[in-house]
Each structure stands twice: as C-alpha cells, then as structure tokens.
C-alpha cells in the first residue's frame, strides 16, 4: 500500500476508531488521546500491511494492542496530588520511585512560568494575589497556571523518564567563525551548557523539557541559557520546540570527510614542498626586512602566505554571508572536539595607516598569536611604528607596551632602538610574492581544492538538517581550510620540512605589510 492509499484509508476509518475509543474510555479527552495513538501506530506500521484486503484486520489488531497498553498503564498509574505541605528536606536519590521523588523530578521539568507560580504558591506559601503582583499577571492567570501545573505534574509523574546520552557523555564543541569581526561567537559558546543545548536539538526539534532530559540539566538552570541562545539566533523556536540554527560538524562527519579526501592531503603537501624549495632563492631576493632570517623561518613565512591565499582565493564572498545575532555578516558553525584537526588560525589586523599585521598561528606549538593584539588597537599601532622605525617619540606608557612585546618575542632592543622580529614587507614586495603564490595555486592546486570542496559539501549536506542546508556551501568553503591547509601543513611538519624548533629571535608565522 502506497502513502496516498494509506492516508485515504486513515481518513476513512478515523471516525470509526474514535467511536471505538469513546466506548472504551470514560472521557472524550482520553478517547481523543487513545485514537491518536492508534492512528499513529497504523501510520508507523504501514510497511507491514500486505494489501487493501488486509488493512481492516490489521487496523483492529493494532487498535486492540494499543488499547491494552493504554489500559495497563492506566491501572498502573498512581499519581501524587500536589498538596500544600510538600516536604523540603527529604533525602531522595534517582533510584527512589516515591511520589515525592517523582513530584520533585517533574518540578525540575516545568517551564519557567508554571514553575514560578507553583513554587510561590505551594512552597513559598504566597497567595494568588501576592503571586499576581510579583509576576505582574492577573489573578485569574495565576489560577490558570496553578491548575495547568497540577495537570502537567500528574501526567509527568505517570511517565517513565530516561535521561539522554548527553547527560552522562556531554560533548565539547569548538565555536568556529569566519566573516566580519569582531568574533563574539567564540566567547559566547565557551559555556558547556550552551554547547550541549545546541548538540541536543541539532538533529531533532525539542521542547525545553526534552532538552532538560537529554542533557540531564534541570530546567531552572537551562532557562536563561536557552533564552540567550535564542536571542543570539544560535537556536530558533518553532512553537514549543527549539532547533539549532548553526551547523555542527560532528566527529563522524569530520572523519568521513577526511577519509574521502585523504589522498589529496599528500598531493597538496608534495606540491607545497616543491614550490617552497624552488622559490626560496627568488623569495629572498625580493629584499624585504627579514630576508636574512633562518631557512626554517622563511619556509614557514612563505608557507603562511601561500596558505592564507588558498583560503582567500576560494571562499564565499562576505556579502553572501548571513547576518548573525550580533549584527555582522559571518558564518558561524561548531566542530565537535574529537581528534581535532583545526591546528591553525589565520587573522589580519589593521593599523592606523592601513598597515597589516598578519598571523598564521600554529596552535599546537604557538609562537606568535593573534590574540596578543586582537582588539587592542594601541598595541597594533605601536608595533607598526616599531616596524616603520618610528619609535623615537615613544612615551613611558608606550614603552610599557613595547616591553610586553619584547617579553612575548615580537620585538628586540638593539643599540638603543627597537626592532621587530617579524618579516616586514612593503606593499609592492608583498604584491610580488602574492602574484607568484596565486599563479602556483591556480595552476597546481585549484583542481584538488575544488574536488575537496565538492566531496566535503556532499558529505556535510548528508549530515546537516534540512533547515540548515543553505549554509552548507558557505561553511564548506571556509571549513575546507582543514583539508587543504591544516592537514597538508601538518604533514610537512611530520616530514620535518617545517620545524617547530623555533629560532629564539624570529617570529615564524607572523609578518607585517606596510601600506606605504
């Protein structure tokens, strides 16, 4: 029986099923619930129906079984009336199936408006009038909330409640960001509770009670977190259900992508190694400040420029990025922290004269990190002045900042003056390098990069909920950084073509481009 035929049959017999349920139950409400359960089981079990002739026999068999289950449950149910003398000091465990334990369990699952009214009335002993004043609602609304709460609690106490996997095996998500700054998403998502709320409602839309059960966190501790996540559009609400509004790249998805494109990692590493080796002399002859640095530092520097251009040449444009809850255009997504391959960060910071301070942070062995300057415009400008040799007029306040940069390795003091430990390019010099790098990427890497992105998008799409599908292309565009940059460069480190035994007076992955 196909889907159309099934729905026609369901519509045809729905009144008959309801009449059957009315004869079996004491109230119309219970009959409606029972008939819905029967119809649900019929639809769910449709694949077992052989043909039209077997439908009615199958229907009555399902109806009889569902009714028996309903009746057994009704006989078993023993609810505790919510009275005004709820004990407050009982020591109860999760293994305790007493009425008081069940009542307390259900109180933790009440949504905020019901929970507040219930606690104020039954535990704090406030009158309806006092609750009305405290919650700024009418007395009739207070009475409605109390009536509804009692009904919800009774129903909940008769249910078996199973905590979800996140309650004992919580996930750690890394918040990823690409777009216009500042990046406030990373700090916002440092909360473990927020990470697991996003995980809980990623594949399924859940009510707040279901989120509570899945994470094992009582609702009083979730209310504010859910509200903040909704406010920043990290989760969205549909009716009484919430679902994640950012793509989560699970460990299973990441591993599947990595396996599918593994052969390309070695190809990219081989081509980068050949390019760096062949172009090193030409690179030094450009004559930038720092061209006399150690071979290892210069290899890292040229690799850093090359890898940044891989990202910038083949990514979604900023104007296509969605608006975030903070108002800027950016892609936000999360990656499950499992066998993490995000070993690099890249960042560009601008000084007052449009100088660029560029970072390619190697997170496993950091020497130079964009967070040392990010958001600190004064530090950026002082460092750019050092790079321009404009440091004779530094005041005491500026010298304190320079001392901090010396401590972190960005600056050294020589013959009474200060010198940056990073390569420094003029705009023209940097343009020459970029043109050479872009030509190499366009001729040697573009086919591999496009194939990695195609395969990655296909796999990520299969792991992504339908309402987030429109973000897959953009996320894949920036997330391919892992498979086109992070893993190939890590391969070069494993080969010892690139060494992490950094030169003490040289910054390996940070450089400056002067505007004039």
What's the arrangement of strands in the largest beta sheet?
6-7-11-10
Tell me the overall shape: elongated
- Listing every helix as H and every strand as E from the N terminus to the C terminus, the arrangement reads HHHHHHHEHHHHEEEHHEEEHHEEEHHHE
Write down how many β-strands occur, each being a DSSP E stretch of 2 or more residues. Answer: 11
Strand content: 5-15%
Q: Overall pLDDT, averaged?
A: 85
Distance from N terminus to C terminus (CA atoms, Å) equals 75 Å
Q: Flag low-confidence runs.
A: 86-95
How would you characterize the largest beta sheet?
4 strands, mixed
Please give the count of helices: 18
| Secondary structure: helix percent | 40-55%
Class from helix and strand fractions:
alpha+beta
Radius of gyration: 31 Å
Write the layout of secondary structure elements.
Blueprint lengths: L2 H22 L3 H17 L7 H25 L22 H9 L4 H12 L4 H8 L3 H19 L15 E7 L5 H4 L3 H9 L7 H8 L3 H13 L3 E4 L2 E4 L2 E3 L1 H34 L10 H19 L16 E7 L7 E7 L5 E7 L14 H11 L8 H13 L2 E4 L2 E4 L3 E3 H36 L9 H8 L1 H14 L15 E5 L2
Helix pairs in contact: 1-2, 2-3, 4-7, 5-7, 6-7, 12-13, 12-16, 12-18, 13-16, 13-18, 16-17
């Amino acid at each position: 029986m196909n889907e159309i035929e099934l729905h026609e049959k369901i519509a045809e017999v729905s009144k008959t099923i309801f009449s059957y349920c009315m004869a079996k139950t004491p109230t119309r409400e219970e009959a409606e619930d029972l008939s819905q359960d029967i119809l649900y089981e019929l639809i769910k079990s449709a694949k077992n129906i052989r043909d039209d002739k077997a439908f009615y026999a199958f229907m009555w068999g399902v109806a009889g079984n569902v009714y028996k289950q309903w009746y057994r449950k009704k006989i078993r149910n023993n609810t505790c009336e919510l009275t005004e003398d709820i004990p407050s000091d009982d020591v109860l465990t999760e293994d305790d199936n007493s009425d008081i334990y069940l009542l307390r369990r259900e109180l933790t699952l009440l949504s905020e408006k019901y929970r507040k009214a219930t606690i104020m009335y039954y535990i704090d002993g406030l009158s309806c009038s006092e609750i009305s004043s405290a919650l700024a609602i009418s007395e009739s609304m207070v009475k409605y909330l109390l009536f509804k709460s009692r009904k919800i609690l009774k129903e909940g106490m008769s249910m078996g409640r199973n905590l979800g996997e996140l309650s004992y095996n919580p996930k750690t998500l890394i918040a990823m960001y690409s777009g216009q700054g500042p990046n406030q998403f990373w700090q916002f998502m440092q909360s473990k509770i927020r990470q697991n709320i996003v995980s809980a409602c990623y594949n399924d839309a859940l009510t707040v009670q279901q989120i509570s059960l899945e994470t094992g966190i009582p609702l009083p501790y979730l209310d504010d977190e859910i509200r903040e996540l909704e406010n920043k559009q990290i989760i969205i609400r549909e009716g009484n259900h919430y679902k994640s509004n950012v793509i989560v790249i699970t460990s299973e998805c990441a591993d599947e992508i990595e396996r599918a494109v593994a052969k390309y990692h070695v190809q990219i590493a081989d081509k980068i190694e050949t390019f760096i080796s062949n172009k090193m002399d030409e690179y030094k002859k450009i004559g930038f400040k720092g061209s006399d640095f150690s071979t290892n530092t210069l290899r890292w520097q040229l690799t850093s420029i090359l890898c940044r251009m891989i990202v910038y040449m083949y990514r979604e444009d900023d104007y296509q990025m969605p608006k975030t809850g903070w108002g800027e255009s950016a892609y936000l997504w999360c990656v499950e922290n499992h066998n993490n391959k995000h070993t690099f960060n890249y960042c560009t910071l601008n000084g007052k004269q449009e100088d660029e301070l560029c970072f390619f942070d190697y997170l496993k062995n950091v020497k130079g990190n964009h967070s040392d300057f990010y958001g600190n415009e004064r530090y950026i400008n002082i460092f750019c002045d050092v790079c321009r040799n404009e440091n004779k007029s530094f005041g005491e306040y500026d010298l304190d900042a320079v001392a901090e940069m010396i401590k972190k390795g960005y600056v050294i003091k020589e013959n009474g003056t200060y010198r940056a430990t990073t390569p420094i390019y003029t705009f023209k010099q940097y343009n020459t390098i970029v043109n050479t790098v872009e030509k190499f990427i366009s001729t040697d890497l573009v086919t591999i990069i496009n194939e990695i992105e195609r395969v990655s998008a296909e796999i990520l799409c299969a792991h992504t909920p339908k309402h987030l599908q429109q973000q897959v292309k953009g996320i894949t565009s920036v997330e391919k950084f892992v498979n086109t940059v992070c893993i190939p460069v890590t391969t070069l480190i494993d080969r010892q073509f690139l060494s992490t035994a950094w030169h003490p007076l040289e910054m390996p992955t940070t450089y400056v481009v002067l505007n004039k």
